Amino acid sequence: MNEIFLHSRSDISIDEFKGYMKACPKNVKLVGIRVRLEENTYKLYRQGISPILRGALRKMSSKSCYFWASGFKPRLNHYDGFDVPIPLRIDIQHGTESIEQVAKDIFGLTKLNYNACRLGSSEPVTIKFSNSVGEILVSNPYTKLRRHQFKYYI
């Protein structure tokens, strides 16, 4: 089965999702997912000196979970952060898929960033690079007079 997963840091409205569905071929399964770092809401600690394991998942419902894309890597016996790992909040907003499968797919998008020579990012490349595009658009001095529609670049 062909599937497309839309990742967004903000809510995907029903009208936006309907627009995406119109653009998709009929035999493609479309799922809208909100993915964002939850900096001030939820942190987990474990006994000992090592932080939570990278890849840990806290399921909140069938469509929502907290997922730690950064954390202790047992195979390397290492945690490359300085603070308590911050979870991603993953919400399936439109479409149907298991939250475990969505988290597994997002985990795959955090594994290795060849452009930054970093092993194990805290955000998936889909979100991280869209943030970079947004920074470029905001820094353009010739477009300060009009408001940017970032949804066209993400």
Task: Determine the structural class based on helices, strands and strand pairing.
Answer: alpha+beta
* Overall morphology: globular
* Number of helices in the DSSP assignment: 3
- Rg for CA atoms: 17 Å
CATH topology: Nucleotidyltransferase, domain 5
Identify the CATH class: Alpha Beta
Uncertain residue ranges: none
- Count up the domains: 1
Task: Give the strand order of the largest sheet, numbering strands 1, 2, ... along the chain.
Answer: 1-2-5-4-3
Report the major sheet. 5 strands, mixed
The CATH homologous superfamily name equals Ribonuclease H-like superfamily/Ribonuclease H
Topology pattern, helix = H, strand = E: EHEEEEHEEH
CATH architecture: 2-Layer Sandwich
* Average pLDDT taken over every residue: 81
Number of strands: 7
Which labels suit this protein?
154 residues; alpha+beta; Nucleotidyltransferase, domain 5; 5-stranded mixed β-sheet; two-stranded antiparallel ribbon
Please render the helix and strand layout as text.
Blueprint: E1 2-8, H1 14-23, E2 28-37, E3 57-61, E4 64-67, E5 88-94, H2 99-108, E6 112-113, E7 118-119, H3 125-139
Parallel strand pairs: 1-2
Antiparallel strand pairs: 2-5, 3-4, 4-5, 6-7
How do you describe this structure in short?
The protein has 154 residues and is of the alpha+beta class.
Explain what the structure shows.
- By secondary structure, this protein is of the alpha+beta class.
- It has a single domain (2-152), classed as Ribonuclease H-like superfamily/Ribonuclease H (Nucleotidyltransferase, domain 5, 2-Layer Sandwich).
- The chain contains 3 helices and 7 strands.
- The chain has helices at 14-23, 99-108, 125-139, and strands at 2-8, 28-37, 57-61, 64-67, 88-94, 112-113, 118-119.
- The strands form 2 sheets. A 5-stranded mixed β-sheet has the order 1-2-5-4-3, with helices on both faces.
- The longest helix has 15 residues, at 125-139.
- The relative contact order is 0.17.
- The model has no long low-confidence stretch (mean pLDDT 81).
